[in-house]
Amino acid sequence: MTSRDELQLAARNHGFPLELLREPITPVGLHYLLIHFDIPAVDAGTWRLEIGGLVERPLVLSVDDLKAREQRTLAVTLECAGNGRALLPDYEPSQPWLTEAVGTARWTGTPLAPLLDDAGVDPTAVSIVFTGVDRGFQSGVEHAYARSLSLDDARAPDVLLAYEMNGVPLPPQHGYPLRLVVPGWYGMTHVKWLHSITAIPEPFDGWQQTEAYTIDGEPVTRMLPRSLLIPPGIPDFLTRERTVERGLTTITGRAWSGFGEIARVEFSSDGGASWTDAELDEPVDRYAWVGWRAEWDAAPGPHELCARATDAAGNAQPLDGTWNHGGYCNNSVQRVPVMVR
After folding, report:
1. Residue 340: helix, strand or coil by DSSP?
2. Rounded to an integer, what is the distance from CA 149 to the centroid of its chain?
3. What is the CATH number of domain 226-340?
């Protein structure tokens, strides 16, 4: 049973309505949202980004300084590492996600790598630590939210310091005035309300790096492949079970992976007992989800609709999830009960 604490989290955060998978770019207010502590009050006029640690030239930059640099816009799919957590048994209590913790936005900002070059990051640096303004307790430990990347991962050409989302300044809940965007990585990496970037000579041991978002002691990194379908027909208010009219029905959805482009999506109307290939659309962008469609001749009676994705690296969605203490990376296939009348 969902606890009062989890209900409190679910009231503060929200998932993405799956019927909006019809939109290639998620409207700002419908993008999934997870806030670990509080939304901090940040005055952009006095806010500064500090880049320091193992660097030759520490930098202190305003929002205007960042906007004066090279600007880039990328459509990027973000998914919470806990997406699918509530479908696993006996997970550690946390935000009770089903499958809706995802969204795709156009992020505008400046590439991080040239800033690291300007600061003169020492090549012996092992970790680049990104720290947000937000602060609180988790499991009794007080800390500011922070995550790290290796120097090589931080230098990837499309890692952005983003100050706009879908063409408008970042909303407060999405990290105003600046957040990190790391295409292909789960959402915990995309540090919001960013205020410092620090190069350090050892692996980062912050709480969100070594306690949260880990599986068997290893930090969670890139998104595993997942496909979601738009539930067809009309829903029941409470159970969300669907009623569909008999006959030919087009099932559509979207798929993504942090390990490369989607190579294949398969559709099943019998709970995964048999599969047919879906037709793939053109990708929205190289880091964004791809649309797909499949034709289904809906016969009267109960059905369970599923879709599974395989990426270009050969990673495929499993039928069932693998348990871990935090309920992370459960990319098992979506199951949509449908009654055809």
Report:
1. strand
2. 16
3. 2.60.40.650
